[in-house]
Amino acid sequence: MPTGVALRDVREQLFAAADRILLRDGPHGLTSRAVTDDAGCAKGVLHRHFADFDAFLAEYVLDRAGRMDEQAAVLREAAGTGTVTGNLTEALTALFGSVAVAIVALITFRDELRARLRETWPAGVPVLTEGAEMIAGYLAEERDRGRIAAGAHVDTLAAVLIGSTHLLFADRTGARPEPEAVRHTVTTVLAAVL
Protein backbone atom coordinates (compact mmCIF):
# COMPACT_ATOMS: atom_id res chain seq x y z
CA MET A 1 0.00 0.00 0.00
CA PRO A 2 1.44 3.41 -0.87
CA THR A 3 2.71 5.65 1.89
CA GLY A 4 0.13 8.12 3.09
CA VAL A 5 -2.91 5.95 2.36
CA ALA A 6 -4.89 5.48 5.56
CA LEU A 7 -5.92 1.98 6.57
CA ARG A 8 -9.17 1.51 8.43
CA ASP A 9 -8.96 -0.57 11.59
CA VAL A 10 -5.40 -1.74 10.98
CA ARG A 11 -5.40 -4.20 13.87
CA GLU A 12 -8.48 -6.00 12.57
CA GLN A 13 -7.14 -6.06 9.02
CA LEU A 14 -3.92 -7.63 10.24
CA PHE A 15 -5.75 -10.08 12.53
CA ALA A 16 -8.09 -11.11 9.68
CA ALA A 17 -5.03 -11.70 7.49
CA ALA A 18 -3.54 -13.89 10.25
CA ASP A 19 -6.80 -15.90 10.34
CA ARG A 20 -6.66 -16.52 6.60
CA ILE A 21 -3.00 -17.50 6.64
CA LEU A 22 -3.39 -19.85 9.61
CA LEU A 23 -6.34 -21.58 7.96
CA ARG A 24 -4.61 -21.83 4.60
CA ASP A 25 -0.94 -22.44 5.50
CA GLY A 26 -0.83 -23.33 9.19
CA PRO A 27 1.45 -21.80 11.82
CA HIS A 28 4.64 -22.26 9.80
CA GLY A 29 3.22 -19.98 7.09
CA LEU A 30 2.40 -17.17 9.50
CA THR A 31 5.16 -14.58 9.15
CA SER A 32 5.08 -10.81 9.42
CA ARG A 33 5.65 -10.56 5.66
CA ALA A 34 2.80 -13.01 4.95
CA VAL A 35 0.44 -11.03 7.22
CA THR A 36 1.21 -7.65 5.70
CA ASP A 37 1.13 -9.02 2.16
CA ASP A 38 -2.25 -10.63 2.78
CA ALA A 39 -3.56 -7.46 4.44
CA GLY A 40 -2.32 -5.41 1.49
CA CYS A 41 -0.08 -3.08 3.47
CA ALA A 42 3.61 -2.33 3.94
CA LYS A 43 5.53 -4.45 6.46
CA GLY A 44 6.25 -1.33 8.49
CA VAL A 45 2.53 -0.96 9.27
CA LEU A 46 2.65 -4.03 11.53
CA HIS A 47 5.71 -2.71 13.34
CA ARG A 48 4.14 0.72 13.86
CA HIS A 49 1.27 -0.88 15.76
CA PHE A 50 3.08 -3.70 17.58
CA ALA A 51 6.51 -3.85 19.27
CA ASP A 52 7.46 -6.96 17.26
CA PHE A 53 5.86 -9.95 15.56
CA ASP A 54 5.43 -11.96 18.76
CA ALA A 55 3.68 -8.97 20.37
CA PHE A 56 1.36 -8.93 17.34
CA LEU A 57 0.73 -12.68 17.72
CA ALA A 58 0.03 -12.40 21.45
CA GLU A 59 -2.53 -9.64 20.90
CA TYR A 60 -4.04 -11.58 18.02
CA VAL A 61 -4.48 -14.73 20.14
CA LEU A 62 -5.95 -12.78 23.05
CA ASP A 63 -8.31 -10.94 20.70
CA ARG A 64 -9.57 -14.20 19.21
CA ALA A 65 -9.97 -15.77 22.66
CA GLY A 66 -11.92 -12.71 23.80
CA ARG A 67 -14.33 -13.06 20.89
CA MET A 68 -15.57 -16.30 22.35
CA ASP A 69 -17.72 -14.29 24.77
CA GLU A 70 -20.27 -13.90 21.96
CA GLN A 71 -20.32 -17.66 21.31
CA ALA A 72 -20.68 -18.29 25.05
CA ALA A 73 -23.67 -15.95 25.27
CA VAL A 74 -25.38 -17.68 22.33
CA LEU A 75 -24.81 -21.09 23.89
CA ARG A 76 -26.08 -19.97 27.32
CA GLU A 77 -29.22 -18.59 25.65
CA ALA A 78 -29.79 -22.03 24.12
CA ALA A 79 -30.00 -23.61 27.58
CA GLY A 80 -33.41 -25.18 28.08
CA THR A 81 -34.12 -25.34 24.35
CA GLY A 82 -33.46 -28.09 21.83
CA THR A 83 -31.35 -30.92 23.20
CA VAL A 84 -28.22 -30.65 25.30
CA THR A 85 -26.40 -32.93 22.85
CA GLY A 86 -27.57 -30.92 19.85
CA ASN A 87 -26.65 -27.57 21.40
CA LEU A 88 -23.18 -28.78 22.35
CA THR A 89 -22.58 -30.46 18.99
CA GLU A 90 -23.41 -27.21 17.23
CA ALA A 91 -21.27 -25.09 19.58
CA LEU A 92 -18.25 -27.39 19.44
CA THR A 93 -18.45 -27.71 15.66
CA ALA A 94 -18.58 -23.91 15.33
CA LEU A 95 -15.69 -23.45 17.75
CA PHE A 96 -13.36 -25.95 16.13
CA GLY A 97 -14.56 -25.17 12.63
CA SER A 98 -13.15 -21.67 13.11
CA VAL A 99 -9.52 -20.65 13.34
CA ALA A 100 -9.33 -22.04 16.91
CA VAL A 101 -7.52 -25.27 16.01
CA ALA A 102 -4.91 -23.34 14.06
CA ILE A 103 -4.43 -20.91 16.97
CA VAL A 104 -3.75 -23.81 19.33
CA ALA A 105 -1.15 -25.13 16.87
CA LEU A 106 0.37 -21.65 16.64
CA ILE A 107 0.70 -21.40 20.42
CA THR A 108 2.34 -24.81 20.51
CA PHE A 109 4.62 -23.94 17.59
CA ARG A 110 6.09 -20.67 18.96
CA ASP A 111 7.99 -20.66 22.25
CA GLU A 112 8.24 -16.87 22.42
CA LEU A 113 4.48 -16.53 21.88
CA ARG A 114 3.78 -18.90 24.79
CA ALA A 115 6.14 -16.87 26.98
CA ARG A 116 4.38 -13.62 26.06
CA LEU A 117 0.95 -15.12 26.66
CA ARG A 118 2.02 -16.27 30.14
CA GLU A 119 2.45 -12.61 31.07
CA THR A 120 -1.33 -12.07 30.84
CA TRP A 121 -2.71 -15.62 30.59
CA PRO A 122 -1.27 -17.53 33.54
CA ALA A 123 -2.77 -20.98 32.93
CA GLY A 124 -4.18 -23.09 30.16
CA VAL A 125 -4.18 -22.42 26.45
CA PRO A 126 -6.15 -19.43 25.16
CA VAL A 127 -9.10 -20.51 23.01
CA LEU A 128 -9.18 -23.99 24.60
CA THR A 129 -9.52 -22.50 28.10
CA GLU A 130 -12.19 -20.08 26.89
CA GLY A 131 -13.96 -22.94 25.13
CA ALA A 132 -13.96 -25.05 28.29
CA GLU A 133 -15.35 -22.12 30.30
CA MET A 134 -18.06 -21.60 27.65
CA ILE A 135 -19.08 -25.27 27.78
CA ALA A 136 -18.94 -25.41 31.60
CA GLY A 137 -21.17 -22.32 31.85
CA TYR A 138 -23.69 -23.86 29.49
CA LEU A 139 -23.66 -27.20 31.32
CA ALA A 140 -24.19 -25.39 34.64
CA GLU A 141 -27.26 -23.69 33.14
CA GLU A 142 -28.60 -27.05 31.96
CA ARG A 143 -27.86 -28.61 35.37
CA ASP A 144 -29.81 -25.79 37.04
CA ARG A 145 -32.75 -26.56 34.72
CA GLY A 146 -32.59 -30.26 35.57
CA ARG A 147 -31.64 -31.34 32.05
CA ILE A 148 -28.42 -32.95 33.27
CA ALA A 149 -27.76 -34.70 36.58
CA ALA A 150 -27.61 -32.50 39.67
CA GLY A 151 -24.24 -33.94 40.66
CA ALA A 152 -22.60 -33.46 37.25
CA HIS A 153 -19.12 -31.95 37.51
CA VAL A 154 -19.44 -29.44 34.69
CA ASP A 155 -15.81 -28.28 34.68
CA THR A 156 -14.56 -31.84 34.14
CA LEU A 157 -17.18 -32.57 31.50
CA ALA A 158 -16.31 -29.35 29.68
CA ALA A 159 -12.58 -30.16 29.68
CA VAL A 160 -13.23 -33.66 28.33
CA LEU A 161 -15.54 -32.30 25.62
CA ILE A 162 -13.02 -29.65 24.56
CA GLY A 163 -10.13 -32.11 24.50
CA SER A 164 -12.05 -34.85 22.71
CA THR A 165 -13.46 -32.52 20.08
CA HIS A 166 -10.11 -30.83 19.56
CA LEU A 167 -8.64 -34.24 18.73
CA LEU A 168 -11.34 -34.76 16.10
CA PHE A 169 -10.44 -31.48 14.38
CA ALA A 170 -6.67 -31.40 14.99
CA ASP A 171 -5.58 -32.79 11.61
CA ARG A 172 -5.63 -29.72 9.35
CA THR A 173 -4.74 -31.78 6.29
CA GLY A 174 -7.51 -34.36 6.55
CA ALA A 175 -11.21 -34.10 5.98
CA ARG A 176 -13.17 -32.22 8.61
CA PRO A 177 -15.10 -34.48 10.96
CA GLU A 178 -18.73 -35.03 10.12
CA PRO A 179 -21.27 -33.54 12.55
CA GLU A 180 -22.22 -37.11 13.50
CA ALA A 181 -18.68 -37.74 14.81
CA VAL A 182 -18.95 -34.65 17.02
CA ARG A 183 -22.43 -35.69 18.16
CA HIS A 184 -21.14 -39.18 19.00
CA THR A 185 -18.35 -37.68 21.11
CA VAL A 186 -20.77 -35.40 22.97
CA THR A 187 -23.24 -38.25 23.54
CA THR A 188 -20.51 -40.54 24.85
CA VAL A 189 -19.02 -37.94 27.22
CA LEU A 190 -22.42 -36.93 28.60
CA ALA A 191 -23.99 -40.42 28.74
CA ALA A 192 -23.78 -40.71 32.51
CA VAL A 193 -25.27 -37.26 33.24
CA LEU A 194 -28.08 -36.88 30.68
UniProtKB/TrEMBL annotation:
Lineage: superkingdom: Bacteria
Domain HTH tetR-type positions: 8-68
DNA-binding interval(s): 31-50
Pfam families found in the cross-reference section: TetR_N (PF00440)
Keywords from the UniProt entry: DNA-binding, Transcription, Transcription regulation
Transmembrane spans: none
GO MF annotation: an example: DNA-binding transcription factor activity
InterPro entries documented for this protein: Homeodomain-like_sf, HTH-type_TetR-like_transc_reg, HTH_TetR, Tet_transcr_reg_TetR-rel_C_sf
PANTHER family: HTH-TYPE TRANSCRIPTIONAL REGULATOR RUTR, MYCOFACTOCIN BIOSYNTHESIS TRANSCRIPTIONAL REGULATOR MFTR-RELATED
Name assigned to this protein: TetR/AcrR family transcriptional regulator
Organism per entry: Actinoplanes aureus
Lineage: Bacteria, Bacillati, Actinomycetota, Actinomycetes, Micromonosporales
